[in-house]
Structure formats: C-alpha cells, structure tokens
Design brief:
mainly alpha; 2 strands
C-alpha cells in the first residue's frame, strides 16, 4: 500500500535522511544586511563630525578672553554655569566677574595721571592674566564634557531568561515567607494584610490570595477562575463559613481537583 504524499511535495523534515543519490544541499551562510554593514562607518563619520564641531566651539569660547582683553573673560563661564547649573560653575563665574571689576578699577586709577605706575603695572598684569589664564582655563573647561549615559544594548534571550527566573524565584520565596508568617503569627498576618491584594498594603507576599477573605473579582483576576467557578466558590464559602485547603474548595465548590493545581501555590486560607 502506498503512503499518501504530504501536501506541497515530498519535503523532508529536519534531521531526516535524504533519498539515495541525493546531493547534500550546501549550508546557507547568513549575510548581514547592507544597512548593518554600513552602520559602523556612518557612526564613525558622525562621531568625527561631532568631535570637530566640539573642538571648534571650544576654541571659539577660549578666544573670548583674548580678543576682549580680559573684559569678557567671565562670559564663557556664564555659559557653562547656565548649561550645567552647578554651584562650582557659578562660583568660577563669580570669581571672574570680580576679577574683571578689579581690572576696570585699576585701569581707571592708572589713567588718572602720573604717579600711578605701580597701579598701571598691576592693572597690566591683571589684563594679561585674564587674557592668557582665562583663555587656557576656558579651553580646558569646555573640553570637559558631561558623562553620557551608556546606551543599553538590547537584552539577549539568555539575559531575559535569567531575569525571568530570578523574578519567579523571588516571588516564590516571598510566598514561602508569607506562609510562614501566616502559620506562626495570625495577628501579624492580618496586620501585613497577607493574601489581601484588594486592600492597600506595603508588604509584598509574592501574590498570595486569601480565598476566605477576598471578593470574587480577586478570585477571577488573581487565580484565573471563571465567573461560574467564582460564583460556586463564593456560595460554598458562605455556606461552609471558611475553607481550610484547596481540596475543600474543590470538594464543596464542585471544581475538578486538577482545576486548582495550577493556582494551588497562590492560595492561602486564614
């Protein structure tokens, strides 16, 4: 008896043997998209352009104290103080403003007449200091760029799996600890509102649900019960008073035992 052929022709499943005499198909070599190959070069050009513009901006600001004869040596630091909003930058700006005020005062005294050679010497030295020192200081200050946040690389599947495992294990551990508290200290259990996601609380119990206390919508949203199952549980709870285990919930609410197996670890009975 001949076997019916699969739809779409006789394609072989992965790992199955090839017919006798058939040539082994060559393995496909994955190629990176052209855009991906071009991206590093484009990024390098963009970084080089940004670096050139930054150096030009640095030199331009550093020239301000020179061509202004020191009178505007505070201007670059005002720009930095406004951009960075740091106390240190404002302090440096204030110091340069005071130095410019002293420079103007000394030059005014030196220009009033004879006998002011010493004042003129001091004024000239201050002018040179503000021109040269201010230029060097500005160049160095504009060269310090604020640290940029490192762009996070996309998480690999292994990293995502490790994070998911750590999260799940953490919640399991919190549920275990909360169960211990509920078993040893019922008063503390009520104080922490363990198993009561319907109430405002600060304690994280790992997602426990107190089947004897929570309203029906929590049974549906947290335990995944249907509307009919929730109604049966609430009716059985009202008739019985309270449950002591998931098996009692299954028996009195007439739910299949395996129906609660998936959520048994989240159920607690106070």
């Amino acid at each position: 008896m001949t076997q019916p052929s699969s739809p779409g022709g006789s394609q072989h499943e992965p790992g199955s043997a090839l017919p006798p005499g058939a040539a082994q198909p060559p393995a496909a070599v994955p190629r990176r998209p052209a855009a991906a190959r071009r991206r590093p070069a484009a990024a390098e050009r963009q970084g080089a352009n940004a670096g050139g513009a930054g150096r030009l901006n640095q030199v331009a600001w550093a020239s301000v104290p020179v061509w202004s004869l020191g009178f505007l040596s505070f201007a670059p630091f005002l720009r930095l103080a406004i951009a960075r909003r740091g106390m240190k930058d404002w302090a440096v700006f204030t110091a340069y403003v005071l130095a410019v005020v002293v420079e103007i005062a000394l030059l005014s005294l030196a220009g009033q007449g004879s006998g002011q050679n010493s004042v003129g010497t001091v004024a000239g030295g201050l002018v040179i200091l503000l021109m040269g020192g201010g230029a060097v200081h500005t160049y160095a200050a504009f060269g310090k760029r604020p640290a940029r946040a490192v762009a996070s690389r996309p998480d690999t599947s292994e990293q995502l799996n490790r994070e998911a495992l750590a999260t799940a294990r953490g919640r399991m551990e919190r549920r275990r600890e909360a169960r211990e508290i509920a078993g040893k200290d019922p008063v503390l259990c009520r104080e922490l509102r363990i198993g009561r996601p319907d109430l405002a609380r600060e304690y994280d119990d790992g997602g426990l649900v107190d089947v004897n206390q929570v309203p029906g919508e929590i049974l549906q949203s947290q335990l995944g019960l249907s509307a009919d199952e929730t109604a049966a549980v609430l009716a059985a709870r009202a008739k019985l008073g309270s449950f002591t285990s998931a098996d009692e919930v299954s028996a009195y609410a007439q739910l299949p035992p395996d129906r609660l197996d998936a959520v048994r670890d989240w159920m607690i009975f106070s």
